[in-house]
Structures are given as structure tokens and as C-alpha cells.
Amino acid sequence: MSSPVILDFTIPAGSSVSEWRNVSGSGIFAVASLDYWTPAPIGFDVTLDGGTTILPLYDQGNETLRLIAAGKIEQLNPDKWLGIPMLRLRSGPFASQIVQTAGAHLAIFGLSDAILPNPRRTLGASDSDYIGAFPAFYTTDEDTMGVDLTWRLAPGEVPVQVEAFDLTVLGPLGVADPTPSARGLGTPSIVGNIVSQRFGAWQDLDRIQYEVGLIVATSRGNTLSLAGTVMVTRPPALQTVSCC
After folding, report:
1. Which of 175, 178, 174, 186 is nearest to 145 (CA)?
2. pLDDT at position 209, please?
3. Could you list the residue range(s) of the whole structural domain that residue 97 is in?
4. How many domains does the chain have?
């Protein structure tokens, strides 16, 4: 039997958007307006970075909007919502939002990911989520890379074991690295939702781009696979220049 998921949202009076909620792992199948609602379609905003970048949800080139009235519930297709991490509800289209004159209370209804296809179970490197580039390292550095997994975790889910946090050479521009596994110093650590690994021992390497691969098991039996890049170069004073 599936477990219901009900997430409350509020659009304050004088505003057109709600707070952000973590909806990853929820098979969303309905949205409801529980009380007063200034007439407007409901829109949906997504973020991957805690709200700094806001992306209006589209489906095949059209903004996703649902007509709704106070005290009504509108069905949604759960297959369209798998893999969305953070969501907020919006009154009106993204480009012409409609202010709610009184506080509007809404709810999202979903099913627990125990019975749904799990978009977070990605093991192969080709299926990894790309997490961007880490700041470049100098070969004299010994520093820690940390990845905050909050945006990839369902409510109550935590990372419990690091299965891999390593480097793969993408393409040397200068000196090659025959043993990239030797750059990891010590073992990875988990503090809250942040997984960290210390890297160093670059020796005489220079101008090498690595893929940073991270595979983490979670408390819900999921396996998160993420990837990024980092460039390692010698400090300017140590770089050699060939001439003539």
C-alpha cells in the first residue's frame, strides 16, 4: 500500500508565490486550493540551487498552468513530476503573475517513492547528474571538495555511505597522471547532507582536467551518482615555458 504525501503551501496576501518545498521522491498527482483564491491559474517554479535561480516549469514548450478555484482539487500526471527537487506554487503565468489579495492556502498531493520509479537511482557515470566545476587547484594545494546533497534528497532522507569519491582524467593538456586514485587523501566524510573528500599529492602534475565522481548510498536505499570537473595546474611561478 502506498503512503500519501501532503505538502502545504501558502501564498501570503499581497504576494504571488509560495515558499519552496522539497518534493523529490513524491509522485505528485493533484494540487488543491483549500480556501480563498483570487482567480488565477496556478503555475509552478523549480529551483536547483535553493531559490537563487528560478525556472518556470514547461512541458513541450508550453508553460505548465492549471486552472483552479477555491475549495477545488486539480489532477496532475505524476509521470511529469518525477525528478523535480524543489518546487513552489505561483499565482498566474511567470511573466504576468497575479497577486493574491488574501492569504491563499494550497496543498500538493503525492505518493511516497516506495512504489514509484526512482529517478535518483543512477549508478552509471553516463547517468550522473552534473554538479558543475569545482574551483581550480594548484598542484601545491591540499584541499577538500564538498558536495551538498540536500537538493537531491527526499524529506527525511540522508546520505549514509560513500561508495566512491574519486577522480578520472578527462584529458591532459600537459603532464599526464598515471595514478589519479592516489590524489584522494584519507576517507570521505559525511556531515549532515554534505559529503567531503580531501585531495592533494599532485606532485609534478600540470594542466590536467579531472572528472570528480561521487556515488552515495542513502537511508532510503537509493544510490545517488553525481559528477563534476576540476582543473589542476602548477602555480605561475612553477610553470615552465619552452622557447625557440
Report:
1. 186
2. 86
3. 4-111
4. 2
